[in-house]
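SAMPLE LOG
Freezer: B-3
Tube label: C17
Construct: single chain, 241 aa
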Amino acid sequence: MGSPDTRVRYSVSTWQQPCPPPASPERTVLVKQVAEQALTRGDGRVLVGIDGFTAAGKTSFGHELAEEIAGAGRPVLRATLDDFKKPWKDRHLYDRESGEGYYRNAYDYEAVRRLLLEPARTPEAASCALCGIDPLTQLDHSGTTTPLAADSVLIVDGVFAFRPEIDKYWDFRIWLDVDAELSVRRGAERDQDWAGSEAESIHRNRYLVAERIYLQEADPLKRMDAVIDNTAFDRPRIVQP
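STRUCTURE (predicted):
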């Protein structure tokens, strides 16, 4: 993570991405602005969801936002929905590789609620788990918990964050907007190491198909508190509100 703020608690998952250095003064200002908006939700616990197409920059933005909010004096917890997928050993029980199958079956929303969101939403709960199943090692970390303070800010990134199964938990919703073709291109470049020549096909025929089903069925964009054009990392723009 580089030199993260010690007030930010990260998942124990090995599926990690470092907090990026500031891309530009303009981006720094935007992150600060969004952090200030999120903190208007109150002095108690605040749950922030960050969504957008694959490779839209959700995890990086989540890390940047966490560092900014921690710098403002609030304890922050960081999680990603990728750490709450169903285990690969069970994939023979359902379709997880087609676009629709990925949307319907990849994520364990019962675990997301039980381990992460419900404790964070409950004032009496003193801890939550920031990781269910490690996506890389497949180790179960659901018993590893992180303390929750009365004023903790939980920032969670991931595709399908505003599905009906978990939509009610968020206090502040962020959508990172990028063109579908840019999402495919960025994702394919990012995932060359593990997907090789299949990377573009996976992003176009699995992830993009799944995301279009999500947009049609859940219609999340109308519920956003902030929509950010993240086409250029050094020149992001708030386009809503």
